[in-house]
Design a protein that fits this description.
The structure holds 2 protein chains of 2 kinds. Chain A is α+β, with helices and mostly antiparallel strands. Helix content of chain A is 22%, strand content 37%. In chain A, helix 3 packs parallel to helix 5 (134-147) and helix 4 runs antiparallel to helix 5. Chain A is globular, with a radius of gyration of 22 Å. The chains are: A alpha+beta, B mainly alpha.
Amino acid sequence: MDSALEIDVTLDLPEFRLQVQEEVPLGGITAVNGPSGSGKTTFLRVLAGLEPGTVGTVRFAGQSWQDDATHLPPSLRRVGVVFQDARLFPHLDVAGNLSYGARRRGVKEDHVARIAEALRITPLLNRGTGGLSGGEARRVAVARALASDPQLLLLDEPLSGLDAELRATTLRVIADAVRELNIPVIHITHSPTEVAALADRVLGFSMGRCTGWQTPPVVLNAKAVLVDGDVMVHLGEASFPASAGIRSGDQLTLAIAVEDTLLSQHSPGDSTAAFSVLADVVGYNGDVVLLDLSGQILRLPMSGFLSSAAREPGQKLWLTVQKFWARSADKAV
Amino acid sequence: MTAAVLLTLQLAAVTTVLLLILAMPLAWWLATTRNRLRPVIEAITALPLVLPPTVLGFYLLILMSPDAPLGAAWVRVTGSTLAFSFAGLVVASILYSLPFAVQPMQTAFQSVDRQMTEAAATLGATRADLFRSVVLPLSRRGVLTAAVLSFAHTIGEFGVVLMVGGNIPGRTRTVSIEVFTAVETLDWAVAHRLSLGLLVFSMIVLIGVYALNRGGAGRLG
């Protein structure tokens, strides 16, 4: 397939084996989501050509990066990699870091300037890397990778170690920049919020193997309000206790894994779920039902256990959510 | 006396330049290779540290003799023998000071974070390119230390020079041999002046090296 990254590789490391067979579409942002230690970073290193012990094939848009006879070095793969730590060159200033890859790949200066602008680092260009804050260093690292004219951008939890507010703003800047430049991205993360904010599709990862495509999380906007002295989350007609750390008046983003949702025609009553809320059916397409929750449209897979009458527009369905991640303006909880 | 000082400085300068050119790729190879021969090559490199200079000089003398392949080839190309010549002294000095050039550079190259070289590789740098553009700038203290130590060690060598070069005024008589000659001929004034000069020079060099390395601990590059 010409517009895909075809991967069929095995890598044996001491006490760890990575075995991946997957085809990743080359468009938009693909999140690789899995627990710590599941081999996500190793997977990314294999794609970048940084693991010489890798056996198998990697084909990028029909071009072989690795097979029995080939192991293209990282310098020839034209991948931009943003590592967990920024890895900026300490002997070069910010502009020098940006032009490092750009010069080697013949990228024009005005394009580099545009990338610096998109990542809002233009005022930092003449500074050394030592005095940069965490968020600035990550943005410079992303800009440096983008300035090397990559045909694929690999992000390895590029926001780890930053506080939630900085993560949110940095994430938005990165997402806008890569969409503007139209470069396919593989984004490694174990944060549902990051997945929700960025990804067009989600690849599950566990114990060194891909566990298949996951549905991207549902994102809902809600508001925290004070009810009888308790901070409650207000969503449609439902109110439920907010997690610790959320303040009254906060605007919230709720990220909900589709696997953690349940649709029913009748109220589930008291349960151990986080909350249940009544929503209107507004459409149905294949296996997906469209729900309107106080003006927010949700796409959810329709269970075969619900009657076909229940999915007709105008019907009401209970949406039960077992757990969610809430992010407010200043911190994630 | 002046001839000896000039000859010594000339020998040290030529040796240092050639040594850096030869030792740098060797140090980079030793710092990065997974080859099983690495300990053997490291041992050969470090041999001049433990071998008596006379032993090294003895073997070099044999290698440089017109009967040996190296010595014969030299005679064919230049028309003169390698032993008891300035060129012979340079060859001997390079081997004798090799560990002083290789080891500081190897340590410096090894301490460059692999993360930096990986980042450079993903940005399009080939192996040679990332050595020049990332490893070398981040190891410049190590390279400078190697240069200073090689220079100073060459100035101070005695046994190898005597074995390979003999004691020919203006050609192979370096400062340390001049001191030896002065003492043998009871010329105490010359021995004093040259010895004190070498002592002060060595002290200054070592203070410089330690100051350089202390400065390097605090900040990168």
